[in-house]
């Protein structure tokens, strides 16, 4: 039976359920040093001096590094460049003359135990001259506190069509003003890195998350003036990545630098407070969008202005989030004209980066809130309005005349109307809406909202996979893809198993180090199944061909008469006859003078893939919300998602991605944001204050996987599902809240808090229920 | 300037001089267990019981394993099979019912510290019923003490020509009876292994010597029922290998097994006493050789019978040593007929294996002692006699009609007479001999002896090398070759540097693990420079071609107009014009959609080599000895070696091999043997009793490297030099001792001890010196 398309279990679940997972905190070496970061306690100040003497007095402290010690270490650059010059806004690995956010690294202590390191860090004296922090984006070019930098790091501009004509022709113009507060990914496992200098081989070995291992390796090698091969990155298991883990942070560079400098293993495991202060944060946008609409509800053009509050510095992802917001706001709709102007603003807050759904979630929020406003203003049913504006399948591939993520925004494939129809049918969405209407009529605050999303996934890049077969018939897969819980090992095993003709549990997938797989664009942007999966497919096809040719030589049977089933090669048209075990064949092909079948060296094969195209998975999210009239609390009992991933290698895992994304989307839409006080101090620096959704808040999620529009970008037709689920939740919930409250445009700011809702409810003239019923 | 052929320094010397070498004892992990082996205190006994209880009482003891615990672990098999069935003679990983030598592993303790492990091991009670040990090889088929096994493990038979006719036609028959006592290699670093089970990746990682890493991996994977890729062998630095280190011993298997069983890292570092009791020993042969000689001193035939005292068990090398003795005794001489019958005898001594020069040193001793006897009996000068019998270059390649090491004994190339001439000339050997004669005439006991040797090297096998270039222009070489101090990294860097056109210090050579290079026949039998060097040559040629083709595309200049010098690519016929740095080119070829030159993926290349031929390096050894009349001590003030290695990539390193071999050969010829008492207890179990040569005993060694006969077995013409230097020392010293004492055939038994010499001197009628002078 084929493996691809079946919701098979992950064979490596047992490892994690048994507590055997190999996370970065599980890596340890004798004589290792523990690194503790001394962080700025204020949001903006001149850094006058750092007194490290008291720390050295503590037994067990080996070294304290300040900016002076790393003066020749440059700031970490931008991985995803969009051409903007961002040098001036990059974060120094340790603050030198100014601190610009609460949590900014100022010094690191390296000590024999974590406790000593932590105690010593508290003894270090920071001499600071506080300055007025900039806590919200400002249009002012001049910064009194930070005269060297100004307040804006970059602008983003994208456009197509004639916007003037569109607005000129419009029957009506609809405008929305929106904002989404700060959020951040909270993986179960915080950040961390272990580095060990091997003096014998003159190699720096690093253990950590594999999101961007190869780029990180290159940067570290350059900074430490080492050959590329002298930095080896070993990808560890990851307890949730979500875009935040595995980027190269100043702390990571300090771990690598200290390990090389001191010749002892260095280990840094972040605590939760540090994670909330210093890991990349996200969202924090404000947007103003105007739509030009004709008499039939067709959107002629959209004009968008937005700001992204980047925080204190630009990190590895540069302007990517802003760029994606600009590129993806048009979404599935066939607008004739579009203009987006985005501003990347600097403030004295934690730097921002990507968080699952980066840019696309913000774009969906802007676009779908705008669509709801248009629906309200035109009186057209919101779903009908969307349907009218969706790009027709005949337009595919649809070139949007823009670029992002290094290539054209050309939707690869899509049957948008069909997905709306199928999802509506499957979940009887009309019934869902009628039922909510009925309950509202009964006085309950219940609403339904929908959002159509287009994700961007698997952008331009490269991947390479190596296969080999051993004497037991085990098929080994070495890949750069990092297992982050998404199940990439299982997907690859399924793809390879079908092509090679073995059970998927005989396929052993290893996340290779950076020597084994020297080039990879990383495990990010929903790219692994599409890119690594395709490379694995190509490798498996080459391996199959080699197997059949070699077996043909051994069995003296033409290759095209042979087949492979259950790890055995036999004649396709016979039930009896010669049978060769895959392991036997592998043994016969082992290289050497006694190689029995002279067919290349060993039973192995490589596969690679290079693409310049991006894939565009899409889906419809429908959320049902209930509001507690007494507390204002919004809950989400049900979510329905129809989603087209092109080809679902393992529907169980795709569904898991979607469900996880939905829950994470609820957090962003409804739970508390990562705000700051008037002095720039974080309001929420622990998980008691920063409320994450628990099982109690998780809705029933129903998923319809659709495979109507396989992607032409890769031979498997995969579109990618890593960001799926989250992208559409914010606008769907916002629309549902509007619906529940009967106030279109109420949910203009995320998160929608209970306090906001209570303000709205209290502002209403309270009507007795009996009267409402009688009206 | 070219690198090949120059005595360049090893770039990795600094690592070792600074104490940064990465030896197995430098590998450690948190929570590791230390393994201590409980060894048999007697040479032969029934093992009635093992009481482990007292050991468990010691805090820190985690486990004690006895034969019962490893009942399903089979004995380690034979790597170098010659067809003989040796199953019954293999060593169990732990003794079950009998112990058969002092030092045999009976149990292992695994504890938190080495001290606890050692203390606990001493508490373990062995219930033994002593039996009469067999301490010398016997012809009796029946063994009273060991009825299940008999006394002989295997026989070896090789022959060519008509021996009866040869002896029938002979003018005289010359016979010698010879013996060589037990010896053993004493590397600076004892044996050791570290194994760590990684539960997350379900992989057993092993750190240890890389002599036969791939075979060891395969055996361990099979025993532990794991896929091949689930056992990864990391080759550590080695403090001298000499054939004894890196073979798979019972102790190694126990380390691997315990690490898997207990899920904790296990570390075993042998102490010197264990090394002297339990590591493979060597030599310990007795031989009777008869030569049929015609009137002109031509050897018509040789009939050889010999025994090898294998000790208690057959280990990984099976019958290799005996096989090589049989195959290599004819050496450089054009005998018409030959027969060798060898017996691998079992005794209650430490098992034997290979030691540098394995089989070839014994063969040289037998052959060259026989030649000296023939010279004496025919009255022909020993060197003249040898010269007459040498194979003529016109006979090359010379098929000897035998097989060994898996392929034909066909001498690849050789100009033997020419080497004798060149060596004689260079070192004025006639003067050396006359001077000794003169000194003898003055009453000194001074002698000169010579031996001509043919080694066998780089037998049938396979190697693979991977190259890549990074953005700095560093050329990376990944190979399975283990650095054992021989300088293989430097040799490979030289070969690659010349072909690619970079300085050899820009070439970074890494001993890859068994995942990076999945197949290799190991670092043994003088094969690395010939095999890995050739694979590196092929890889470098492929890389050069790729560089030129890609550069041609980038520079728009035909590839054949380009050259590479000092890491820069430029037009060969111009001093000015476009120049491209190798690193720049590598960057341009990095894979991905932005790859600037569409020429394959990345700037890398592979090379491999498979051979079914063996190489046969050869040389002339001349030793000068002086005997102290009062103590009988033999010293070796001078040694002269002329040696043809085909192609000396780095003459400095070849010379170092030869000098090291010479000193090691002196130890074997003159220093104390690893004898046992009448109960089978080792006479020498520490380095005070077992006297190794020191700098004081090291002679002045003069080396003439000859490259007259490049090997046709590989494209570099390399013959290999890893065993060189040692092979001829025993017969050269024996002949010199005879010469000094004026007693041809005195040195029939090695080592020649001071006691032997004193007995001889005392047996003579003491003549006053004045009388001798007057005679």
Automatic annotation (TrEMBL), chains A, B:
GO MF terms, alphabetically ordered: iron ion binding; oxidoreductase activity
Membrane-spanning parts: none
Keywords attached to this entry: Molybdenum, Oxidoreductase
Sequence ranges assigned to domain Aldehyde oxidase/xanthine dehydrogenase a/b hammerhead in this UniProt record: 18-132
One Pfam short name: MoCoBD_2
Protein name (Swiss-Prot/TrEMBL): Xanthine dehydrogenase
UniProt lineage: Bacteria, Pseudomonadati, Pseudomonadota, Alphaproteobacteria, Hyphomicrobiales
């Amino acid at each position: 039976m084929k493996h691809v398309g079946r919701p098979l279990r992950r064979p490596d679940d047992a490892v994690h359920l048994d507590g055997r997972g190999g996370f970065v905190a599980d890596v340890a070496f004798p004589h290792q040093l523990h690194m503790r970061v001394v962080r700025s306690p204020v949001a903006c100040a001149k850094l006058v001096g750092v007194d490290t003497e008291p720390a050295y007095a503590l037994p067990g402290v080996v070294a304290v590094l300040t900016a002076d010690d790393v003066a020749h270490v440059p700031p970490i650059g931008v991985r995803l460049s969009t051409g903007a010059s961002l040098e001036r806004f990059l974060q120094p690995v340790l603050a030198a003359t100014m601190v610009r956010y609460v949590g900014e690294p100022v010094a690191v202590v390296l000590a024999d135990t974590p406790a000593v390191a932590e105690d010593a860090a508290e003894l270090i004296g920071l001499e600071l001259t506080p300055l007025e922090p900039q806590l919200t984006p400002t249009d002012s070019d001049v910064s009194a506190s930070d005269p060297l930098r100004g307040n804006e790091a970059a602008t983003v501009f994208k456009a197509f069509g004639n916007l003037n004509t569109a607005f000129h022709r419009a029957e009506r113009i609809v405008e929305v003003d929106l904002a989404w507060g700060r959020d951040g990914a909270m993986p179960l496992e915080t950040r961390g890195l272990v580095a060990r200098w091997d003096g014998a081989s003159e190699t720096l070995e690093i253990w950590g998350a594999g999101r961007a291992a190869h780029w990180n390796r290159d940067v570290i090698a350059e900074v430490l003036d080492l050959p590329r091969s002298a930095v080896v990155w070993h990808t560890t298991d990851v307890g949730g990545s979500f875009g935040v883990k595995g980027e190269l942070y100043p702390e990571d560079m300090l771990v690598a630098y200290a390990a090389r400098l001191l010749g002892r293993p260095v280990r840094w495991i972040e605590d939760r407070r540090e994670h909330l202060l210093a890991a990349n944060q996200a969202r924090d946008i404000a947007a103003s969008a105007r739509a030009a609409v004709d008499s039939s509800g067709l959107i002629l053009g959209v004009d968008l202005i937005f700001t992204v509050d980047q925080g204190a510095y630009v990190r590895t992802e540069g302007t990517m989030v802003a760029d994606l917001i600009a590129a993806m706001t048009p979404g599935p709709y066939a607008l004739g004209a579009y203009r987006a102007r985005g501003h990347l603003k600097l403030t004295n807050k934690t730097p921002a980066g990507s968080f699952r759904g980066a840019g696309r979630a913000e774009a969906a929020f802007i676009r779908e809130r705008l669509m709801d406003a248009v629906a309200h203003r035109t009186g057209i049913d919101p779903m009908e309005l969307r349907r009218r504006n969706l790009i027709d399948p005949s337009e595919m591939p649809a070139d949007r005349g823009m670029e992002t993520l290094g290539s054209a925004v050309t939707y690869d494939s899509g049957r948008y109307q069909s997905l709306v129809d199928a999802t509506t049918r499957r979940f009887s969405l009309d019934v869902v809406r009628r039922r909510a209407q009925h309950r509202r009529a009964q006085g309950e605050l219940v609403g339904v909202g929908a959002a159509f999303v287009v994700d961007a996934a698997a952008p331009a890049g490269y991947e390479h996979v190596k296969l080999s077969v051993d004497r037991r018939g085990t098929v080994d897969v070495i890949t750069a893809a990092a297992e982050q819980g998404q199940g990439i090992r299982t997907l690859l095993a399924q793809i390879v198993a079908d092509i090679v003709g073995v059970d998927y549990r005989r396929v052993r997938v290893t996340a290779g180090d950076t020597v084994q797989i020297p080039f990879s664009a990383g495990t990010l942007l929903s790219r692994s199944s599409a890119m690594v999966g395709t490379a694995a497919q190509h490798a498996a096809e080459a391996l199959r061909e080699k197997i059949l040719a070699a077996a043909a030589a051994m069995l003296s049977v033409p290759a095209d008469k042979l087949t492979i089933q259950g790890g055995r090669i036999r004649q396709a048209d016979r039930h009896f006859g010669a049978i060769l075990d895959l392991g036997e064949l592998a043994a016969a092909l082992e290289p050497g003078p006694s190689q029995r079948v002279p067919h290349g060296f060993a039973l192995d094969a490589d596969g690679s893939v290079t693409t310049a195209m991006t894939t565009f998975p899409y889906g419809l999210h429908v959320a049902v919300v209930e509001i507690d009239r007494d507390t204002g609390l919004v809950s989400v009992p049900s979510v329905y998602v129809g989603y087209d991933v092109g080809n679902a290698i393992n529907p169980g895992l795709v569904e898991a991605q979607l469900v996880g994304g939905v829950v994470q989307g609820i957090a962003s839409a409804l739970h508390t944001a990562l705000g700051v006080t008037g002095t720039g101090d974080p309001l929420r620096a622990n998980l008691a204050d920063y409320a994450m959704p628990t099982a109690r808040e998780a809705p029933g999620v129903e998923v319809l996987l659709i495979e109507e529009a396989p992607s032409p970008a890769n031979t498997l037709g995969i579109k990618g599902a890593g960001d799926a689920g989250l992208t559409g939740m914010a606008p769907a919930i916002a629309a549902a809240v509007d619906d529940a409250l009967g106030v279109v445009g109420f949910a203009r700011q995320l998160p929608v808090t209970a306090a906001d809702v209570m303000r709205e409810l209290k502002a209403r003239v309270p009507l007795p229920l009996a009267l409402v019923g009688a009206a």
